[in-house]
Amino acid sequence: MIDEQFVQVKNLRKVYDNGHEALKDVSFSVKKGDLVCLLGPSGCGKTTMLNMLAGLLDPTSGDILFNGKSVVKVAPKDRQIGYVFQNYALYPHMTVLQNVMFPLTVGKNKRSKAEAEKVAKKYMEITQITELANQKPGNLSGGQQQRVAIARALVQEPQILLMDEPLSNLDARLRLKIREEIRSLVKRVGITTLFVTHDQEEALSIGDKIILFNNGVIQQDDVGQNFYLEPNNYFVANFVGNPVIDNFAVKIADGKISGSDFEIPLAALDQDRIKGELTPGEYTLSVRPENILPSEQGHFTAKISDVELIGRERILKFDHDGIQARSLVNLETTIQRGDQVQLSMRLDRIFLFTKEGTRVY
Ligand SMILES: Nc1ncnc2c1ncn2[C@@H]1O[C@H](COP(=O)(O)OP(=O)(O)OP(=O)(O)O)[C@@H](O)[C@H]1O
Ligand SMILES: [Mg+2]
Questions:
Q1: What mean pLDDT, rounded, does the chain reach?
Q2: Of 188, 189, 192, nearest to 207 (Cα)?
Q3: Where does the ABC transporter domain start and stop, copy by copy (predicted)?
Q4: For ligand 1, is residue 297 a contact (CB within 6 Å)?
Q5: Is the dihedral of CA 78, 82, 88, 90 positive or negative?
Q6: I need a labelling partner for 190 at 20 to 30 A (CA). Which of 175, 233, 261, 317 fits?
Q7: Is the minimum distance from the CB of 87 to ligand 1 under 6 angstroms?
Q8: Integer Cα distance of 45 and 59 in angstroms
Q9: Is residue 180 very low, low, confident or very high in pLDDT (cuts 50, 70, 90)?
């Protein structure tokens, strides 16, 4: 069915005038009504991607389809898109109410003034800016401006909503509340949404799926839990997860994995998880802190250098080959700084990466 995949991006490339290739052969699709998060470090190409979807930038090559039709030659105003820009882009001479109403006072979406005002006020209530109706953007905080921009994008009830870090200036509580509002709203109205963030927890909590970029290349396009459980490569394993994953330099030789102070026979691995040939050589063994835990009989012994409380859990920090590593344990642990503990890894949860970052286990 055509509208099953409402947005399709095919082999998209963007080379800027200065020769910088911001996106390299990017392909993905988004189902109608889904909320998809574009995640990745600063400079990976997220805003470039949204600008091409909106029609503000022309692709160097490749295609973009909405509902099965190419939109590459369609003007931005005819793409039925709502866009919340990274820098808000509010009209400084208009009040908050006028800003939010604006899309309903021009072009195809034009309505009577009374009706435009009614719709605007509905979305201003949702984004909690009702009291600011008569202020000018110059008098607002960053977070308030951001909410005005969100309300302005929503009033058009667009087919596709593009949001570029829409919550970056909000305090933690408001951020949580507004992101839940955004999700329930776009689900209720059925708007296909692409939501840019570099906050992985935000992506995991609101995205139907996540597309993780690095250096203009998609690293993984998947549901949230797979970024934890089945990362495609070293970059993904290290980008997603808090506290971050532990990485140990290891060698494979003579049928076993050898770290500086532990050995694991290859036969002890879960054979179903082997993805590539485990040829002799150097690898990185990576394990999430929740999968390396104190135990009576561990893989190695470590001296705990620090214990950090993070809400319901504690992080035991230790040095391994001069690199800090972590074990994530229950709040009630009696282990203290300076203790020697044996640590055991869940072998069905570890990952092995080649030097190039390809996952082989
Ligand atoms: N007009 C331009 N000319 C040349 N290079 C550009 C231009 N705009 C962006 N770039 C470069 O393209 C890359 C991608 O930029 P983009 O703005 O898409 O990143 P981003 O993922 O949105 O980053 P951030 O999280 O910091 O907003 C960056 O390396 C950036 O320096
Ligand atoms: Mg950006």
A1: 94
A2: 192
A3: 7-240
A4: no
A5: positive
A6: 175
A7: no
A8: 13
A9: confident
Whether 214 lines ligand 1, by a CB cut-off of 6 Å, is: no
175-180 long-range Cβ contacts below 8 angstroms, 24+ apart: 175/202, 178/127, 178/128, 178/147, 178/150, 179/205, 179/206, 180/206
Residue positions counted in the chain: 361
Whether the upstream peptide bond of residue 92 has omega within 30° of 0, thus cis, is no
Q: Is 16 close to ligand 1, i.e. is its CB under 6 Å away?
A: yes
134 lines ligand 1 (CB under 6 A): no
Average pLDDT, stretch 227-251? 96
pLDDT at 37 over 70: yes
Distance CA 128, CA 343 (A): 49
Q: Helix, strand, or coil here: 123? A: helix
Mutate to test the pocket of ligand 1, among 23, 38, 46, 200 (most ligand atoms within 8 A of CB): 46
| Residue 81 CB–ligand 1 contact under 6 Å | no
Nearest Cα residue to atom 26 of ligand 1 = 42
Å from CA of 44 to ligand 2 middle: 8
Written as one letter, the residue type at 302 is: A
Tell me how crowded residue 201 is: count the other CB atoms within 10 A of its CB: 11
Q: What is the C-alpha separation between 233 and 240, in angstroms, rounded?
A: 11
pLDDT in tens, 226-235: 999 999 999 9
Q: What is the pLDDT of residues 91-143, one digit of tens each?
A: 999 999 999 999 999 877 889 999 999 999 999 998 889 999 999 999 998 88
- Cα(148) to ligand 2 centroid in Å equals 19
As given in the structure block, the two tokens for residue 122 are 């509905």
Q: What are phi and psi of 43, to 5 degrees?
A: 90, 5
> pLDDT for 270-312, tens place per residue?
999 999 889 999 999 999 999 999 999 999 999 999 999 998 9
Q: Where are the alpha helices (DSSP H) in the chain?
A: 46-54, 96-101, 113-126, 142-154, 172-189, 200-206, 224-229, 234-239
- d(CA 204, CA 287) in angstroms, rounded, equals 20
